[in-house]
Structure formats: structure tokens, C-alpha cells
């Protein structure tokens, strides 16, 4: 499927997520769709920003908001998701219970974002693309039934951990 991230965003916005959490959920939507199909779900590039993966167009649309506040539902234009809604449900079931800060820490611990930030200082801005391919996603393994494993927050997660 070849769509834009803004077409997928309303699914998560309806669940009252912050801009920070929305960015990370879009990233996981892309990663797991690639793991399942070998293709990208949306055409937008994901950039390796300081606080994790970011789709610039989504950031630009909600940049006026604080990172931790829920995006108002009146800010969305609903689109028909059809066959991908089950995939979005799977992503939500695996990550929806986590806070945005937990998702930042989680993305900081994973190969796609870490590889894209190589050579950069911790607080150095970057527009580098987060590469999502068979090499960078090799640690992402589906459950035996083809679903995404539910992530639990361990004691090792500290908000905005070092990388």
C-alpha cells in the first residue's frame, strides 16, 4: 500500500495520543508493516530526530502543541483505512499502553534509529532518514500467530535514556 502518514494518523489521534506518542506509533506502524510484508505502508520519510523517529509533515502539522498533550480530535480528517486497520490495531495493542516518553526510550534502544544517529552527538539535530529494511529490522520478530509482541516497560527504561 502506498499512502501518506497523515492518512494513518487519525486512527491514533482518535485514541487521544500526544504528538510525541503519535510519531512513535507511526514509526512502529511502518517498521512492523515492513516486517510483515517487505514493503513500506506509507511513503513519508521518517527522520532520526533527537527524541526518536519523526515524520516531518506530521510534526509540522502539530508543532504548536506541547509534546505531552493529547491532539484534539477536531484536528483530524478521517479516512477509510480498509485492510490496514487490522495492522493498526495490532500496533496499538502492542504499544498503545505506553507513554510517549517510554516509546522514546524504546526507539532509542533499537537498530533503525541507533544506526541512523551514528556519528551524531546526543543533542545534535538531524534530518537523516531512519532506514527501515531487512537488515535494520532483523530484531523485530512476530509472534507465532503473526501478531506484534506486546511490549512491557522494564525497570531499565528511564525517560529519554542515553543512547
Strand content: under 5%
Oligomer kind: single chain
Number of domains: 1
- Helicity, as a percent range: 25-40%
Mean pLDDT: 87
Distance between the termini: 33 Å
CA radius of gyration: 15 Å
Uncertain runs are none
Overall geometry: globular
What is the H-and-E element order?
HHEEHHHH
Give the neighbour order of strands across the main sheet: 1-2
With helices defined by DSSP (H or I, 4 residues minimum), what is the helix count?
6
Structural class: mainly alpha
Largest sheet, if any?
2 strands, antiparallel
The number of E-state strands comes to 2
Summarize the topology.
Layout: H1 5-13, H2 19-37, E1 46-49, E2 52-55, H3 56-62, H4 85-95, H5 100-108, H6 111-116
Antiparallel strand pairs: 1-2
Helix pairs in contact: 2-4, 2-5
Description of the molecule:
The chain has 163 residues and is mainly alpha-helical. The protein has one domain (1-163). Helix content is 37%, strand content 5%. It is built from six helices and two strands. The chain has helices at residues 5-13, 19-37, 56-62, 85-95, 100-108, 111-116; strands spanning 46-49, 52-55. Strands 1-2 form a two-stranded antiparallel ribbon. A hairpin with a 2-residue loop joins strand 1 and strand 2 (52-55). Helix 2 (19-37) packs across helix 4 and helix 2 (19-37) packs across helix 5. The longest helix is centred in the N-terminal third of the chain and has 19 residues, at 19-37. The model has no long low-confidence stretch (mean pLDDT 87).
Amino acid at each position: 500500500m502506498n499512502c501518506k502518514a497523515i492518512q494513518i494518523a487519525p486512527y491514533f489521534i482518535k485514541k487521544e495520543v500526544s504528538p510525541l506518542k503519535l510519531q512513535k506509533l507511526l514509526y512502529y506502524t511502518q517498521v512492523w508493516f515492513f516486517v510483515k510484508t517487505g514493503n513500506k505502508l506509507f511513503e513519508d520519510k521518517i527522520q532520526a530526530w533527537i527524541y526518536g523517529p519523526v515524520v516531518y509533515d506530521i510534526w509540522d502539522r502539530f508543532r504548536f502543541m506541547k509534546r505531552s498533550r493529547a491532539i484534539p480530535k477536531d484536528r483530524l480528517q478521517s479516512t477509510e483505512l480498509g485492510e490496514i486497520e487490522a495492522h493498526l490495531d495490532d500496533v496499538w495493542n502492542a504499544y498503545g499502553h505506553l507513554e510517549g516518553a517510554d516509546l522514546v526510550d524504546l526507539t532509542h534502544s533499537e537498530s533503525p534509529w541507533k544506526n541512523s544517529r551514528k556519528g551524531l552527538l546526543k543533542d545534535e539535530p538531524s534530518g537523516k532518514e531512519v532506514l527501515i529494511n531487512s537488515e535494520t529490522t532483523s530484531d523485530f520478530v512476530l509472534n507465532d500467530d503473526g501478531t506484534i509482541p506486546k511490549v512491557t516497560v522494564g525497570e531499565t527504561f528511564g525517560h529519554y535514556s542515553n543512547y
